[in-house]
Write a structure and sequence with these properties.
7-stranded mixed β-sheet; globular; 5 helices
Length: 171
């Protein structure tokens, strides 16, 4: 495995996060959208400079850049978020996106382990995420990392509701 690094992103990384998010989202999720326009509207809202800037300034949120010899992805973590439909509060992995061609190399597993360790180091004992149900590869990956099914959720995607699987684990 090529040397993998992770570092906390800062406001100086705004353009890099914006560009990485737009490319990696399209690569991994374009097939779930009924309308290209709806997808572009979502991307323009979710990954606008202003949206990322606000998120970077939020003390409850941390963005991490994932790098090898170049930036290959990012993760977004929200500290202390309630798991929908439960009373449980934990660390929410909001996003973990890797560039096309870098999946299947063990990077995701390593990053997930690091983020869970960071969570434990901060005193948290629960970790959770949402994954698109039809993304069977991602669901299997998270199951293999010890995350368990909690419940179903939904992502509103333009005119379509995309089924989500909510998964979590004690850390």
């Amino acid at each position: 495995m090529m040397e993998l690094g992770i570092r906390k992103a800062s406001s100086g990384d705004l353009k890099l996060l914006h560009d990485l998010a737009r490319v990696t989202y399209r690569t991994h999720y374009s097939q779930i959208w009924l309308s290209k326009n709806d997808m572009e509207d979502y991307i323009n809202k979710e990954y606008s400079y202003e949206s990322i800037r606000k998120s970077l300034a939020n003390p409850r949120v941390t963005w991490y850049l994932i790098v090898t010899d170049r930036p290959i992805g990012f993760a977004k973590v929200i500290w202390e978020m309630r798991v929908p439909g439960t009373g449980r509060v934990g660390v929410f992995l909001s996003k973990l996106y890797l560039d096309e061609g870098t999946t299947g190399k063990g990077y995701g597993k390593h990053i997930l382990e690091l983020i869970m360790q960071y969570s434990k180091d901060k005193g948290y004992d629960y970790f959770w995420l949402e994954v698109i149900k039809q993304n069977e590869r991602a669901c299997r990956f998270y199951e293999n990392q010890g995350l368990n099914y909690i419940s179903n959720g939904t992502l509103k995607a333009g005119a379509k509701n995309i089924p989500l699987k909510i998964m979590g684990k004690d850390i």
